[in-house]
Amino acid sequence: MGDEMSDKARIQKIFLDEQTVVNRSPQVEHERKVAIYDLLENNHFSLIDGPEGPYTLRLSIEENRLAFDVRSVDDQPIKRFMLALSPFRSIVREYLMVCDSYYKAIKTSSPSQIEAIDMGRRGLHNDGSEILEQRLKDKAELDHNTARRLFTLVCVLHIRG
Questions:
Q1: By CB neighbour count within 10 A (0-12 exposed, 13-18 middle, 19+ buried), where does 9 fall?
Q2: Residue 1 pLDDT > 70, yes or no?
Q3: Helix ranges, the chain (H)
Q4: What is the rounded distance in angstroms from the CA atom of residue 116 to the CA atom of residue 161?
Q5: Model confidence over 38-77: pLDDT tens digits?
Q6: Whole-model pTM?
Q7: What's the pLDDT at 71?
Q8: How far apart are CA 34 and CA 139, in angstroms?
Q9: Rounded to whole angstroms, how far apart are CA atoms 41 and 157?
Q10: Which of 58, 89, 110, 158 makes the best surface tag, with the fewest CB within 10 Å?
Q11: Burial level of 50, CB count in 10 A (0-12/13-18/19+)?
């Protein structure tokens, strides 16, 4: 029974709106691929007051809002909701700046400097994940690792060419 429940309370497919994307760095593209792979391998996501899954999730930014289009695995619409982007703007901006510093540091800095930047990067990532969890609390139940991976994808969506 536990396995059956976990199969239903999950995202089985995920799609990002790629229309707004012009070019992403190889590092960002790698982070996107890893986040999607890890998310699909292990996640906990279920709608509050909605049908059980598994789900297909389409993430996009529309009219300055983060859109969650939750569908059945056969692509039938279930629930759609939007989150204001303003609570994410500063944390995403800071996170992307620290990521850029981290990628540059990998090439030229000492291991201790790289580790310090990485600790800051992980801290900002956790903060962003917590904001996402908080903003979704009335809409969906998710675990922290799922929130972390979704936050990575939110950051990817913020990168415009």
A1: buried
A2: no
A3: 2-8, 26-41, 86-108, 111-136, 144-158
A4: 29
A5: 999 999 999 998 888 899 999 998 888 999 999 999 999 9
A6: 0.88
A7: 96
A8: 25
A9: 21
A10: 110
A11: middle
